[in-house]
Each structure stands twice: as structure tokens, then as C-alpha cells.
Amino acid sequence: MSRFNTFRISIEEYYRAHKRDLPWRKVVPVPYEVWLSEIILQQTRVAQGTPYFHKILEAFPTIESLALADEDTLLALWTGLGYYNRARNLQKGARQILTEFNGQLPEQYDELLKIQGIGPYTAAAIASICFQEKIGVVDGNVYRVLSRYFGISTPTNSTSGLKEFQALANECIQGTENPGMYNQGIMEFGALHCTPKSPNCMYCPLSNSCHAHNTGTVTTLPVKLKKGKKTKETLHFGVVQNKNKVALRKRGTDSIWAGLYEFPQLDGAPEYGQLLAEPMLHKLSHKDLYCSFWAVAEAEISGDYNFYSKAEAQELGMPIIIADFVTNKL
Predict the structure, then answer these.
(1) Active-site positions?
(2) Rounded to two decimals, what is the model's pTM?
(3) Whether 185 and 254 share a structural domain
(4) Radius of gyration of the chain (CA)
(5) Which residue from 245, 269, 289, 326 could staple onto 282, CB 3.0 to 4.6 Å apart?
(6) Residue 225 counted as domain residue
């Protein structure tokens, strides 16, 4: 038996024995639900993403309802997940599916790649899980499992690494009769067993033939090129209240919080104003934001804004740090 088959069979057996009961995993997968789950789970843990899956699916049970939804409503439901472009691209993709694909997700990997917001990983997941196409998924969990088992030290975030790991993933899936089960299996194995820290090598079904285990390189694989150092930025927000309402503005389309609502920003700490809380830290992938909230007079703020009650504000899409302040400090 080839090493690829040994690996694949072990992954499939592991999945049958240990797979989690998740709401989008059905005997007959629903393509829209699989797509929605994969977008939500990008950069998000399953435990955190599952409640969002339920509430977004309840609000928008079909691709058509998602396509026709008010963007503010969608972003409000997304508040707390971060990476809000995922939500915007999800809706753009739904609108594209309505106009170009008769309201149905296409069944082929190459066609799925034409949809806004669907990249190689998501296309492979949908194509294999829903339509049994033999395209290997490659995400952080899969990088780790393949790198350790096959002893690959090519950086996962390099151009050559992307090509090498995708080719290997495609090779591993060829012998299966159930591509969806195999792809879900390798992702599950990486998430639950071959974890980044303290993987369960002692009870691993692959340990006898795993390169990293046999060479003592578990802690050094996979290899990833280091990113630049995170930057820091300080933001000051003006909190203006009037008759139990608060001033909020909607950001433009050219920022990290594009289209979301926030308090009007100040140029710096105001000369006349009361600091309402200790500066709050909001961590992004590329920078740390230190946010201060100041009670100021309306004359201190500028630009377009409107006044909302607390209940109305909580129905708007906001960055999580703004949403936390509205909920807990107002």
C-alpha cells in the first residue's frame, strides 16, 4: 500500500470515529449551509462561529434572502466575528449567484472560483463535500498535518509552498471514494488531534509513519515566513449624548471597518472632555488599536452623524470594541 493510501485511510477512519456533530454536517449536505459555514469559520474557531451560523441562517435561510438583505442588518448579525469583508463578499457572492447561476451554487470547483469571496480553499470544500469532486482542501490545519506527516519544510505562506501543498493535498485525495469525508477528516484531525501545540502523538494513528514524529521535528513544522512587526495606533472617539440618544456615524468604504458604525473620531484627546473608561485595546492581525472614549459636546465633533437610542444602536453593524462600549458603558 502506498504512503498516500495509508495516510488517507487513517484520516478517514479517524473522522468516522471522532467527527464532531456540527449543524452544517448533514447526510445530504446543503451547499448554501456549507458555504456559509466555511466563510464564518475563516479566522474563527468552531465554538465561536457556530452561534453566528445559526442566527445568520435563521435570518437569511436562502441564497436569495441573503442577496436581497439590507447590508446593515447583515453586518449587525456579524458583529463580533471581525473581518467584516467576509460578510460583504458573502452577500456579493449571493447576488452574483442569483444573476449568473440561476440562484444555485455551481457544482464544479472551477465554476465556484468565479464567485465573489470564494477562493481555492472554500471552492474545494464545497465541491468535495457537496458534489464529491476530488480537490484537496488546504487550510491551516491541513498545512500542519501534511507538513508534519510528509516532512515538508517549504514555508506554507510562500508562493512555492502554496503550490506544493495544494499538489500534495490533491494527490492524497485521489484514492478516496468519498472526497467530502476525507477533506473534512483531515481538517478535523488537524483541529482536534495534530494541534499546533502539544499534539497527541502518543495515541496518533499516523505516528509510525509520520516524518515529524520520527525525526523529532513536530515543534518545528510547519514552517511559516515571519510577518512584519505589528504596529500600534491610538484612536479617540467623541461620545455625544442627547435625550438618551448617542451620535454615531457610518464609515466609508476605504477602511478596516468599512460600512460599520462608530462614534465620531476626534483628532486627538480633547481639551474639554471626560474620559469615560480606561483606553481599550483592540487587536487586529496587523496592528493594535488603543481606543479612548470621551464625553464631549456636540460642537467637538464634525462630519455626518445621526443620533440613535441604545436599542437602535445595538441593531447596527459595529466593530466589536464599539459594540462592547455601547452595550456595557452607555
Answers:
(1) 38
(2) 0.86
(3) no
(4) 23
(5) 289
(6) no
